[in-house]
């Protein structure tokens, strides 16, 4: 079984990867980069990968036992986080780099980021609306943690708090 986190960067993907590691899965946080063939063969759980964001429909068909976790956060909070963290750090287009692997030295506007977020969210929700047995929407910023994740993955809940990483700014 493969577990694909199809949430965008800064939606709790590092916490998700940490959680799946604690559950015993071989997990990797890819920082927006694509999944390699070697990783697909050796890793169980993927987070923060543009492959997950844009190839989830193919993964759904290619890996019939796979599960999909859509980590989410409030759109306006997400946009502000990208504007505050990603844009100053990299000074390139978040959207173009992740969509096309193109490094363009221009930052995305608030409106462009909102549109990108909404388009991704609408695509994910539309695709999975009749596939709920393999889909979980998970919002660590609103309190989702072990209970919903472990029920979804049909595993025991660990006797510890769900991981929340400082730079994820969990409430």
Please specify the SSE layout and strand pairing:
Blueprint: E1 3-5, H1 13-22, E2 27-32, H2 37-42, E3 45-49, H3 50-62, E4 67-71, H4 75-90, H5 94-100, H6 110-128, E5 135-138, H7 146-153
Helix pairs in contact: 4-6
Features:
alpha/beta, five-stranded parallel beta sheet, about 170 residues, about 45% helix
Question: How many beta-strand elements?
Answer: 5
Q: Report the mean per-residue pLDDT as an integer.
A: 93
Sketch the major β-sheet. 5 strands, parallel
Q: How far is it from the N-terminal to the C-terminal residue, by CA?
A: 31 Å
Measured by DSSP, the beta-strand proportion falls in: 5-15%
Largest sheet: spatial strand order:
2-3-1-4-5
What does this structure look like?
This protein has 171 residues and is α/β, with parallel strands linked by helices. The N and C termini lie far apart (31 Å). The radius of gyration is 15 Å and the shape is globular. Helix 2 links the parallel strand 2 and strand 3. The protein has seven helices and five strands, in the order βαβαβαβαααβα.
């Amino acid at each position: 079984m493969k577990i694909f986190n199809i949430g965008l960067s800064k939606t709790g993907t590092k916490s998700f990867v940490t959680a799946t590691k604690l559950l015993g899965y071989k997990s990797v946080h890819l920082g927006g980069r694509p999944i390699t063939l070697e990783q697909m063969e050796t890793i169980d759980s993927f987070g923060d990968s543009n492959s997950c964001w844009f190839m989830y429909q193919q993964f759904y068909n290619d890996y019939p036992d796979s599960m999909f976790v859509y980590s989410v956060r409030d759109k306006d909070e997400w946009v502000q986080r990208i504007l505050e963290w990603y844009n100053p750090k990299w000074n390139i287009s978040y959207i173009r780099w992740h969509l096309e692997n193109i490094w363009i030295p221009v930052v995305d506007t608030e409106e462009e980021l909102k549109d990108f977020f909404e388009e991704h969210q609408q695509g994910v929700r539309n695709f999975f609306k009749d596939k709920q047995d393999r889909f979980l929407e998970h919002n660590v910023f609103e309190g989702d943690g072990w209970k919903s994740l472990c029920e979804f993955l049909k595993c025991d809940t660990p006797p510890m708090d769900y991981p929340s990483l400082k730079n994820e700014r969990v409430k």
